[in-house]
Amino acid sequence: MRTTVGIIGAGPAGLLLARLLHNAGIESVVLESRDRSYVERRQRAGILEQGTADVLRAAGAGERMDREGLRHDGIELRFDRRRHRVDFPALTGGRSVMVYAQTEVCKDLIALQLREGGPLLFEAEALAVEDAGTDAPRIRFRHEGREDVLECAYVVGCDGFWGVARKAIPAALTQVFERTYPFGWLGILADVPPSHDELVYARHDRGFALLSMRSPAVSRLYLQVPDGTDAGTWSDEEIWDELERRFETADDWHLERGPITQKSVTPMRSYVHEPMRHGRLFLAGDAAHIVPPTGAKGLNLAVGDVVTFARALIHRQETGSAELLDAYSATCLRRVWQAERFSYDMTTLLHRAPGATPFEDRLQLARLERITSSRAAETDLAEAYTGFPLG
After folding, report:
1. pLDDT of residue 43
2. Which of 140, 230, 316, 335 lies 20 to 30 A from 6 at CA?
3. How far apart are CA 349 and CA 329, in angstroms?
4. Is residue 391 over pLDDT 70?
5. Secondary structure string (H, E, C) spanning the chain
6. Averaged pLDDT for residues 270-296
7. What is the pLDDT of residue 44?
């Protein structure tokens, strides 16, 4: 097989890239190791920045998002039993975010790709990226019981942290920056309408809690738990009781309970691989960087990466100049590090570290007081949450 761009991974980044290239008349082939059903059920992110929503609309993939997604114009910060709303449009010149699950983004993009785009091969396992440093990289893959080779002009690895793309960059050329956190998130899906119409980020002496949602009828909630926690050790009643404690307010707000349909624990880490390009191999999304979910940046960073690549390749096709392709890694990393900074700030602002001292507790509260009393500090949070410029 031969194509212009070989894309490894049919998550939202790989699928969106294929769509952007298709709209520009550039051929691509997408290889996905899992089956279609798995990709369309894989629960991940649910918050789309303003820029991400705009890109999906421009790509022709925003119709159902605009019909079924939930536009959010703010978040609530909760601490010391107090509530403070951060008004995004008032602080950012009209920007907002969209609650629309990654599973739904994938469904929309898969349907478009199968109907209008180039080949999308499910259960096609990428085995290796070969000759990445040359003008003729290749993806060796297994599909329908036999090995094959996809010859490409460019390869984009959207295959996550455990994928093969990053391994094709020589270790001698790379730097890795990472931090692991001594806590995780116990997350639940519950068949109950959300108890608030916007996300609630709660700082409590017992640990962080987040109230989110997947739809008007399905709530998504999280509790900070020690690293290594087994979700099965928490009963449904214990989860609801702990959520109620951490979300407690001085007014008459209360938490609605309902049947829990899913429980899982997400570890927390920050990770950046530099560079994000080697020859004609380009990394995107979790293949190059991971953020703790507190800042809702993971999917949005991946979108920024593929938008940057698509713009650079279109520029090359139109002008013959490889300037933007050559700058891909540096361009993406500027945005990545701002997202890493914001995600770290949000995580350390709201989570109580094991063994935290009274001094550290008071510093957290002082940081929250600053955000809720200073328009400048509140604006900085709102601008970062609604999204850094793409590309």
Report:
1. 73
2. 335
3. 29
4. no
5. CEEEEEEECCCHHHHHHHHHHHHCCCCEEEECCCCHHHHHHCCCCCEECHHHHHHHHHCCCCHHHHHHCEEECEEEEEECCEEEEEEHHHHHCCCCEEECCHHHHHHHHHHHHHHHCCCEECCEEEEEEECCCCCCCEEEEEECCEEEEEEEEEEEECCCCCCCCHHHCCHHHCEEEEEEEEEEEEEEEECCCCCCCCEEEECCCCCCEEEEEEECCEEEEEEEEECCCCHHHCCHHHHHHHHHHHCCCCCCCCCCCCCEEEEEEEEEEEEEEECCEECCEEECHHHCEECCHHHCCHHHHHHHHHHHHHHHHHHHHHHCCCHHHHCHHHHHHHHHHHHHHHHHHHHHHHCCCCCCCHHHHHHHHHHHHHHHHCHHHHHHHHHHHHCCCCC
6. 97
7. 74
Write out pLDDT tens, residues 236-282: 999 999 999 999 999 999 999 999 999 999 999 999 999 999 999 99
Closest CA to 157 of 359, 312, 11: 11
Return all residues near 201 (Cβ < 8 A) that are at least 6 apart. 75, 76, 77, 78, 208, 210, 294, 346, 350
CA gyration radius, the chain:
21
| Percentage of the chain modeled with pLDDT above 90 | 97
Alpha-carbon torsion (229, 234, 236, 238), positive or negative: negative
Query: Which pTM value belongs to this model?
Result: 0.95
101-135 residues labelled b (16+ CB within 10 A) or e (exposed): bbbbbbbbbbebbeeebbbbbbebbbeebebbeee
- How far apart are alpha carbons 32 and 44 in whole angstroms? 17
Model pLDDT for residues 228-240, shown as the tens digit of each residue: 999 999 999 999 9
Q: Residue type for 89, please?
A: P
Task: Tell me the torsion sign for CA atoms 351, 376, 388, 92.
Answer: positive
Catalytic residues: 72, 201, 293, 297, 385
